[in-house]
Amino acid sequence: MTKLTGIAASDGIAIAKAFLVEEPDLSFEISKSDDSQQEKERLATAIADSKVEIEKIKDVASKSLSAEEAQVFDAHLMVLEDPELRTAYEQKIDDEGLNAQSAVRQTADFYIDIFKGMEDNPYMQERAADIKDVTDRLVAHLLGVRIPDLSTIDEEVVVVAYDLTPSDTAQLNRTYVKGFATDIGGRTSHSAIMSRSLEIAAVVGSGSASKEIKDGDMVIVDGLNGEVIINPDDATIAEYKATLDAFLARKAEWEKLKDAETLSKDGKKFELAANIGTPKDLTGVHDNGAEAIGLYRTEFLYMDSDEMPTEDEQFESYKVVLESMEGHPVVVRTMDIGGDKHLPYLELPEEMNPFLGYRAIRIGLNQPELLRVQLRALLRASVYGTLRIMFPMISNLPEFRAAKAIFEEEKAKLVSEGVEVADNIQVGIMIEIPAAAVLADQFAKEVDFFSIGTNDLIQYTMAADRMNEHVSYLYQPFNPSVLRLIKNVIDASHKEGKWTGMCGEVAGEPMAAPLLVGMGLDEFSMSASSVLKIRSLISKLDSEKMAALADKVVNEATTSDEAEEMIREAVPELAEL
Ligand SMILES: C=C(OP(=O)(O)O)C(=O)O
Ligand SMILES: [Mg+2]
Fold first, then answer.
1. What is the pLDDT of residues 54-66, one digit of tens each?
2. Which of 92, 253, 391, 462 has CA 20 to 30 A from 420's CA?
3. Which domains does the chain have, with CATH numbers?
4. Which residues contact 456 (CB under 8 A, 6 or more apart)?
């Protein structure tokens, strides 16, 4: 039994067999065979086995992805069964005496090079990616190597990987994937955030899970305490089962507040909202009684697709979300690509510091056609609910003014075309760059609202990469510098009669709730799975007492630890969570 310590990324405890995601080693020497008939038979078997696999993936994917997203697997089947490719493989076997894997690899490389070279034809470039995917699978079969495929998991497992990208995480089926453990990553990396939406236990940044855990090992992922236990003994399993039962009992208590308003003990009202990435997350929003959507990360819509979603496709997704919220506010953030979020079809420059680089609104203002399409789709959808639009990564007022001007232009154009748009759309900004937090008083005169993105605000304030587990100790929500910025933003908005929300992960941290209630944060937006826990906690807090506590912490604490200590002492209820 071995215990690894990492970062608790998503509440819950998973006990299951490990499904190890390893980059398969598909390297081999090109070589010949004396028996071309046998090689052709091996090829035929590999094609048949690959077909069964791709069909299975397609079947699973079609349940969780849109029809269009699942179409990629039809393209794969076509490549797999392409008669021209098959003839080319067989000719290499017959004419050059190559073995099957060598014939497949050489043929594939030939076509991939040609298609990749067609730089002005993105369609053919995509076909190169399809050929690579399909022929890698064929080669894996011919070499007897397993290609791990997250979307085909159909038994209870814990996924173990060096890292999971946001698109890997999107494929996880929560019916079977009970938890995951990764070597790298931080609490606010996007796969960690998604694990909370999926409500599966997760530990990230364990350092070595993927090296120490073998496929099929029994594993406990303790997402409450950030521990991974490999091949636990019976007593340990029993202990963790008991912790899990206690956690589930607390959850059942919180569930009673599903339809309740969020009120502090002395009756002050707060709004508890949820963060979503795609319309698929709406189930979690409703199941957990969120009162609004405080952050719709629309980049996941873009990431889920093989090409830039059209205005109509975007309109449909926004409409679904607005309608499903039945008039409750929906804050939609314009595309926040860059950092750890990439689009296969949008080429971005290689950068030394992607989180400080060409990201979010910087792309939107430099390539305004992308922003315009999105704003038009949003404006058209605005009549289906209460829409609020939010621009990400605003660092100075001219950026906000330029983005707002584009919004006004597109609105005017649609109105002149006779398209109906809502006239009560609030337009606000994320506060995630310290420069904007410091000048919140000036921004507050021009924006309709703020939403504090603590994930980035902390990374930029502390100069600590949110993806890097080596500096995760500097992810300090309670560092007095961060707390002062947050208070400054809330106060500045209130002075101008505006409201402030928080959509970074701190909004769902129990330890932060007393301070945020005390500072008068208007809206808390978090992973849906945290809503009921925070609603329950807020109902036990007195807002006046919390205001005094917040003042004390902001003015007197000199370190993050001191601040946490003051909170723990003043709010014994935290120990019960
Ligand atoms: C909510 C935020 O945005 P994201 O996590 O998508 O960068 C944030 O930075 O806090
Ligand atoms: Mg951010």
1. 888 777 666 655 5
2. 391
3. 2-22+150-247 (3.50.30.10), 36-143 (1.10.274.10), 256-576 (3.20.20.60)
4. 355, 393, 430, 432, 433, 466, 504
